Protein: Phosphoribosylaminoimidazole-succinocarboxamide synthase
Organism: Metallosphaera prunae
Amino acid sequence: MEKISEGKTKEVFSLDNEHVLLRFKDSVTAGDGAKADIIDGKGILNAQTSALLFRLLERDGIETHYVGMKDERTMIVKRLAMIPVEVVLRNYATGSIVKRLPIKEGEAFNPPIVEFFLKDDARHDPLLNYHHMRHLKLMNEEEARLVEEVMVRVNQTLSKVISKMGLILYDFKLEFGRVNGRLVVGDEISLDSMRVRDPTGRILDKDLYRKGYPLDQVKASYVEFLDRLRSVA
Ligand code: CDP
């Protein structure tokens, strides 16, 4: 099968005119690829977590690229023209925002904050506003507003299920693509792309890896999250 592209954690293969395969690798990276390792089975965990969460979004009427699974680490998805923008929604402050702005770790955002970043590791994913996105022909203001609305609806679905698990969704990142004039949620939704903590502040997501915890502890957390998700979803 023809490989169309390969990123840090996924490979994309051509399936037919309307579909591609997304194969989740076992690699884990941080710092725009500066740090990289292999965690055996991580690709399966992220593929399964993403599939389950995409199905929940679809159930709530949010269009995603998810079609089905080819095998345990390979997703069949709609072929999208991807927009190279990372859209982040934050319920609680952590990560880049507390470095960038005078905002304290753990501060709550009511309503949540949505931010756009250019997907560009060499430039460390710079923050974008509507003007930048229009000039760079990434999306117009109308599309950006629509994306913000979708982010809020996705947040409702994700926050609800994660709260049922006894956990808190701090923030998450989505990527969008276009097909037949529609904006569709693409990429993945896993512990690589969201921050989840328990009520005591224990970290369950990729921040464990970013902070240098042992790889087996990172994996155990991804396993625990998927188990708990399966038990409530
Ligand atoms: O991860 P970092 O502190 O650099 O960035 P952030 O803007 O605080 O990240 C917000 C959310 O987006 C977190 O859940 C990250 O895991 C996720 N993210 C991502 O999935 N991919 C990136 N390249 C950057 C952030």
